[in-house]
């Protein structure tokens, strides 16, 4: 099927056609296309959705996979995986997504998820894997240490998960009132100077929170904290994979299944009612998120691969980088 996308998507992701049989992605206005591809949830995606409706064409929602690459997308790293969703966005808690339905139906996928989880934890990898494994030097002042995860201002993963600036303020206030030592993880795009975070130094500093500005891996940070609090970051999912307590102040894809301490408001509870009604294990969610949902390809030759081969590629690229 010939597919169309907006100029922004065709220009920003010139490799995208490799995920769809090596075709050249056409304009959304081109005659003869059989469907429309929309990336993310910003203006270009809304434009694509409007055109698809006007032309009576199916639309697929695209995003990076949860196991993406060694480097950042902002730095030009091509993803090893993307997700293609015919229902919604995986970050959108206001409506069902294909991921949500896969998690709900993952009763028999725990063994697969366990194997994936063990490989991810053993190899200390996450969505992005460009940062070194090095313990942060922070004096422990209390027995309990909470990691607060900052996110990028304006990122749809916050608003679509039914979070807001107020969610971060509430999370910070609750943490500072808990008596625990509070560490704040800055988002990689913020550390790289590309974006701005919700938790500013001035706001957090008033309560004694410590910013982790060290450019170190997710695994290295999780090694030195006792629990993770987040609004909707995948960092919370990384913590769950490692068996850590996680509190959520919005509704990311892994919340609402009985694994997280959910600080949902009335509207969020109403939005999820009847959809995330089953209890799920971390292995069932891991199977859906890392294997059943995404498509993996090796950017070297664009052959389709599975999640285990993707993990091997990331580990090999990390080792090659360490030798340079």
Automatic annotation (TrEMBL):
CDD domains reported in the protein's UniProt record: beta_Kdo_transferase_KpsC_1
Record Pfam families: Capsule_synth
InterPro entries in the cross-refs: Capsule_polysaccharide_synth
Descriptive protein name: Capsular biosynthesis protein
Organism field: Rhizobium mayense
